[in-house]
Specification:
The chain is of the alpha/beta class. The chain contains ten helices and eleven strands.
Protein backbone atom coordinates (compact mmCIF):
# COMPACT_ATOMS: atom_id res chain seq x y z
CA UNK A 1 0.00 0.00 0.00
CA UNK A 2 1.35 3.43 -0.98
CA UNK A 3 0.37 6.34 1.26
CA UNK A 4 0.63 9.64 -0.60
CA UNK A 5 0.40 13.03 1.12
CA UNK A 6 0.87 16.69 0.33
CA UNK A 7 0.21 19.93 2.17
CA UNK A 8 -1.03 22.32 -0.53
CA UNK A 9 -3.69 21.60 -3.12
CA UNK A 10 -1.98 23.92 -5.60
CA UNK A 11 1.19 21.78 -5.55
CA UNK A 12 1.72 19.33 -8.40
CA UNK A 13 1.39 15.62 -7.63
CA UNK A 14 4.49 13.43 -7.58
CA UNK A 15 4.65 11.91 -11.06
CA UNK A 16 6.92 9.02 -10.03
CA UNK A 17 5.56 5.55 -10.84
CA UNK A 18 5.54 3.25 -7.79
CA UNK A 19 4.97 -0.49 -7.58
CA UNK A 20 1.99 -0.77 -5.23
CA UNK A 21 -1.31 -2.62 -5.19
CA UNK A 22 -3.20 0.24 -3.57
CA UNK A 23 -2.78 3.98 -3.08
CA UNK A 24 -4.24 6.03 -0.21
CA UNK A 25 -4.11 9.82 -0.39
CA UNK A 26 -4.37 12.23 2.52
CA UNK A 27 -3.22 15.55 3.90
CA UNK A 28 -4.63 19.02 3.33
CA UNK A 29 -3.42 18.95 -0.27
CA UNK A 30 -6.02 16.27 -1.00
CA UNK A 31 -8.77 16.60 1.62
CA UNK A 32 -9.49 17.64 5.22
CA UNK A 33 -11.05 14.43 6.49
CA UNK A 34 -8.62 11.56 5.84
CA UNK A 35 -6.65 10.33 8.85
CA UNK A 36 -3.98 7.68 9.29
CA UNK A 37 -4.79 4.44 11.09
CA UNK A 38 -4.00 4.89 14.79
CA UNK A 39 -1.21 2.30 14.77
CA UNK A 40 0.57 4.28 12.04
CA UNK A 41 -0.08 7.66 13.66
CA UNK A 42 1.47 6.32 16.89
CA UNK A 43 4.73 5.31 15.19
CA UNK A 44 7.98 7.25 15.45
CA UNK A 45 8.77 8.91 12.09
CA UNK A 46 11.58 7.47 9.98
CA UNK A 47 13.75 10.59 9.66
CA UNK A 48 16.38 8.73 7.63
CA UNK A 49 14.33 9.35 4.48
CA UNK A 50 14.70 13.13 4.90
CA UNK A 51 18.28 14.17 4.00
CA UNK A 52 18.00 17.63 5.60
CA UNK A 53 17.13 16.30 9.08
CA UNK A 54 20.32 15.69 11.05
CA UNK A 55 20.67 12.73 13.46
CA UNK A 56 20.37 15.04 16.50
CA UNK A 57 17.03 16.52 15.37
CA UNK A 58 13.42 15.40 15.72
CA UNK A 59 10.13 16.83 14.42
CA UNK A 60 6.64 16.41 15.83
CA UNK A 61 3.63 17.78 17.70
CA UNK A 62 2.86 18.28 21.38
CA UNK A 63 -0.73 19.27 20.59
CA UNK A 64 -3.13 19.07 17.66
CA UNK A 65 -5.97 21.40 16.75
CA UNK A 66 -6.73 25.05 17.49
CA UNK A 67 -9.62 26.94 19.14
CA UNK A 68 -9.41 29.87 16.71
CA UNK A 69 -11.52 30.15 13.56
CA UNK A 70 -9.28 32.19 11.27
CA UNK A 71 -10.88 32.47 7.83
CA UNK A 72 -7.70 31.48 5.98
CA UNK A 73 -6.81 28.46 8.14
CA UNK A 74 -7.93 24.83 7.70
CA UNK A 75 -6.61 23.55 11.06
CA UNK A 76 -9.88 23.76 13.07
CA UNK A 77 -11.76 21.98 10.29
CA UNK A 78 -9.13 19.28 9.91
CA UNK A 79 -7.96 18.74 13.50
CA UNK A 80 -10.71 20.21 15.67
CA UNK A 81 -10.24 21.82 19.07
CA UNK A 82 -6.88 22.02 20.84
CA UNK A 83 -5.89 18.80 22.64
CA UNK A 84 -2.74 17.09 23.97
CA UNK A 85 -1.02 14.82 21.49
CA UNK A 86 2.53 13.64 22.35
CA UNK A 87 4.79 14.36 25.32
CA UNK A 88 8.02 16.23 24.52
CA UNK A 89 10.15 13.22 25.56
CA UNK A 90 8.28 11.03 23.09
CA UNK A 91 8.71 13.59 20.30
CA UNK A 92 12.41 14.07 21.04
CA UNK A 93 13.04 10.32 21.20
CA UNK A 94 16.58 10.76 22.51
CA UNK A 95 17.44 13.83 20.40
CA UNK A 96 18.17 17.30 21.79
CA UNK A 97 16.99 19.53 18.91
CA UNK A 98 13.23 19.41 18.36
CA UNK A 99 11.15 21.26 15.76
CA UNK A 100 7.54 21.42 16.94
CA UNK A 101 4.73 22.00 14.44
CA UNK A 102 1.96 22.82 16.94
CA UNK A 103 -0.57 25.31 15.60
CA UNK A 104 -1.39 26.92 18.98
CA UNK A 105 0.49 25.34 21.90
CA UNK A 106 -0.28 28.23 24.28
CA UNK A 107 -4.02 27.52 23.98
CA UNK A 108 -3.45 24.18 25.75
CA UNK A 109 -3.35 25.79 29.21
CA UNK A 110 -1.90 23.59 31.93
CA UNK A 111 -0.64 21.01 29.44
CA UNK A 112 1.31 23.73 27.62
CA UNK A 113 2.84 24.94 30.90
CA UNK A 114 3.81 21.38 31.82
CA UNK A 115 5.42 20.71 28.45
CA UNK A 116 7.32 24.01 28.30
CA UNK A 117 8.69 23.40 31.80
CA UNK A 118 9.79 19.93 30.75
CA UNK A 119 11.55 21.43 27.71
CA UNK A 120 13.51 23.65 30.10
CA UNK A 121 14.26 20.86 32.58
CA UNK A 122 15.48 18.48 29.84
CA UNK A 123 17.50 21.27 28.17
CA UNK A 124 15.98 20.62 24.75
CA UNK A 125 16.58 23.17 22.00
CA UNK A 126 13.29 23.80 20.22
CA UNK A 127 11.51 25.79 17.55
CA UNK A 128 7.74 26.20 17.26
CA UNK A 129 7.84 26.64 13.50
CA UNK A 130 4.11 27.37 13.04
CA UNK A 131 4.30 30.37 15.41
CA UNK A 132 2.79 31.16 18.80
CA UNK A 133 -0.33 33.22 19.53
CA UNK A 134 0.86 36.50 21.03
CA UNK A 135 -2.61 37.16 22.47
CA UNK A 136 -2.16 34.23 24.86
CA UNK A 137 1.24 35.24 26.27
CA UNK A 138 0.96 35.78 30.03
CA UNK A 139 3.75 36.72 32.46
CA UNK A 140 4.00 33.00 33.33
CA UNK A 141 4.32 31.96 29.70
CA UNK A 142 6.79 34.82 29.08
CA UNK A 143 9.01 33.54 31.88
CA UNK A 144 8.97 30.03 30.45
CA UNK A 145 9.60 31.18 26.87
CA UNK A 146 12.53 33.36 28.00
CA UNK A 147 14.20 30.38 29.71
CA UNK A 148 13.87 27.94 26.81
CA UNK A 149 16.86 27.21 24.57
CA UNK A 150 15.67 28.16 21.10
CA UNK A 151 17.01 26.85 17.81
CA UNK A 152 18.43 29.95 16.04
CA UNK A 153 17.50 31.97 19.19
CA UNK A 154 14.24 32.97 17.52
CA UNK A 155 10.62 33.02 18.75
CA UNK A 156 7.85 33.06 16.15
CA UNK A 157 4.48 34.81 16.39
CA UNK A 158 1.60 35.32 13.98
CA UNK A 159 0.68 38.89 13.02
CA UNK A 160 -2.12 38.44 10.52
CA UNK A 161 -4.46 41.28 11.52
CA UNK A 162 -4.03 44.93 12.60
CA UNK A 163 -5.13 44.09 16.16
CA UNK A 164 -2.31 41.57 16.48
CA UNK A 165 0.32 44.31 16.13
CA UNK A 166 -0.31 45.57 19.67
CA UNK A 167 -0.56 41.99 20.96
CA UNK A 168 2.81 41.14 19.42
CA UNK A 169 4.37 44.26 20.91
CA UNK A 170 2.92 43.37 24.32
CA UNK A 171 4.16 39.77 24.13
CA UNK A 172 7.61 40.83 22.91
CA UNK A 173 7.97 43.29 25.80
CA UNK A 174 6.91 40.67 28.36
CA UNK A 175 9.38 38.09 27.02
CA UNK A 176 12.26 40.56 26.73
CA UNK A 177 11.61 41.80 30.26
CA UNK A 178 11.79 38.16 31.37
CA UNK A 179 15.34 37.98 30.02
CA UNK A 180 15.08 36.76 26.42
CA UNK A 181 17.87 38.24 24.23
CA UNK A 182 17.09 36.68 20.86
CA UNK A 183 15.01 37.66 17.84
CA UNK A 184 11.31 37.60 17.03
CA UNK A 185 9.96 36.31 13.72
CA UNK A 186 6.44 37.30 12.63
CA UNK A 187 4.33 35.45 10.07
CA UNK A 188 2.18 38.09 8.33
CA UNK A 189 -0.60 36.89 6.04
CA UNK A 190 -1.16 39.20 3.09
CA UNK A 191 -4.91 39.58 2.71
CA UNK A 192 -6.79 40.91 -0.33
CA UNK A 193 -6.87 44.33 1.34
CA UNK A 194 -3.76 46.12 0.04
CA UNK A 195 -3.98 49.08 2.41
CA UNK A 196 -4.32 46.90 5.52
CA UNK A 197 -1.46 44.62 4.45
CA UNK A 198 0.68 47.63 3.54
CA UNK A 199 0.13 49.32 6.90
CA UNK A 200 0.89 46.11 8.82
CA UNK A 201 4.11 45.37 6.92
CA UNK A 202 5.40 48.95 6.99
CA UNK A 203 4.67 49.20 10.72
CA UNK A 204 7.47 46.71 11.39
CA UNK A 205 9.75 48.43 8.87
CA UNK A 206 9.33 51.76 10.70
CA UNK A 207 9.82 50.04 14.05
CA UNK A 208 13.12 48.49 12.96
CA UNK A 209 14.34 51.79 11.51
CA UNK A 210 13.64 53.51 14.83
CA UNK A 211 15.50 50.78 16.70
CA UNK A 212 18.55 51.25 14.48
CA UNK A 213 18.50 55.00 15.04
CA UNK A 214 18.53 54.27 18.76
CA UNK A 215 21.49 51.90 18.17
CA UNK A 216 19.36 48.96 19.26
CA UNK A 217 19.55 45.65 17.44
CA UNK A 218 16.54 45.16 15.15
CA UNK A 219 15.07 42.11 16.85
CA UNK A 220 11.71 41.82 15.03
CA UNK A 221 11.53 40.36 11.53
CA UNK A 222 8.24 39.94 9.65
CA UNK A 223 7.72 37.32 6.95
CA UNK A 224 4.90 37.94 4.47
CA UNK A 225 2.87 35.11 2.95
CA UNK A 226 0.53 35.75 0.00
CA UNK A 227 -2.87 34.24 0.69
CA UNK A 228 -3.81 31.11 -1.28
CA UNK A 229 -7.51 30.27 -1.26
CA UNK A 230 -7.85 26.51 -0.51
CA UNK A 231 -11.25 26.49 -2.24
CA UNK A 232 -9.82 28.11 -5.36
CA UNK A 233 -6.21 26.88 -5.68
CA UNK A 234 -5.83 28.03 -9.29
CA UNK A 235 -6.64 31.64 -8.41
CA UNK A 236 -3.53 33.65 -9.27
CA UNK A 237 -1.67 35.50 -6.54
CA UNK A 238 -1.95 39.28 -7.10
CA UNK A 239 1.30 40.83 -8.27
CA UNK A 240 1.29 43.38 -5.44
CA UNK A 241 1.33 40.51 -2.92
CA UNK A 242 4.31 38.94 -4.68
CA UNK A 243 6.13 42.29 -4.65
CA UNK A 244 5.35 42.99 -0.99
CA UNK A 245 6.47 39.49 0.03
CA UNK A 246 9.69 39.89 -1.95
CA UNK A 247 10.37 43.24 -0.26
CA UNK A 248 9.79 41.96 3.28
CA UNK A 249 11.32 38.50 2.95
CA UNK A 250 14.64 39.61 1.46
CA UNK A 251 16.13 41.02 4.65
CA UNK A 252 18.98 42.88 2.98
CA UNK A 253 16.36 44.84 1.00
CA UNK A 254 13.85 45.22 3.85
CA UNK A 255 16.46 46.69 6.17
CA UNK A 256 17.47 49.42 3.73
CA UNK A 257 14.53 50.33 1.46
CA UNK A 258 10.92 51.36 2.17
CA UNK A 259 8.26 49.53 0.14
CA UNK A 260 7.43 52.74 -1.76
CA UNK A 261 11.02 52.84 -3.10
CA UNK A 262 11.43 49.12 -3.74
CA UNK A 263 11.93 48.24 -7.44
CA UNK A 264 11.12 44.55 -8.00
CA UNK A 265 11.33 45.00 -11.77
CA UNK A 266 13.20 47.36 -14.03
CA UNK A 267 11.25 50.56 -14.44
CA UNK A 268 8.66 49.76 -11.73
CA UNK A 269 8.66 51.28 -8.25
CA UNK A 270 6.19 49.94 -5.67
CA UNK A 271 4.86 53.40 -4.97
CA UNK A 272 2.73 52.70 -8.05
CA UNK A 273 0.80 50.15 -5.95
CA UNK A 274 0.32 52.70 -3.18
CA UNK A 275 -1.11 55.23 -5.64
CA UNK A 276 -3.35 52.60 -7.26
CA UNK A 277 -4.94 51.40 -4.02
CA UNK A 278 -4.84 54.64 -2.04
CA UNK A 279 -8.19 55.39 -0.37
Amino acid sequence: ILYRSKIFNFSADDATIYNADKEIRGGTGYDLVSVLPQEIDDMQPDFSIYPNITPDMSWGFLTRGCPNKCAWCVVPRKEGAIRPYWDIDRVANGRKNVVLMDNNILAAGGYATEQLQKVIDREYRIDFNQALDARLVTPEYASLLARIKWIDRRIRFGCDTPKQIDECERAIELIQNAGFKGQFFLYCMLTDDFNESYQRATYWWVRNQEMREEHTTAAVYPYCQPYRDPLNPKRPVPQWQKDMAQWVNKKQIFELVHFDDFQPRKGFRCYEWVKLFKK
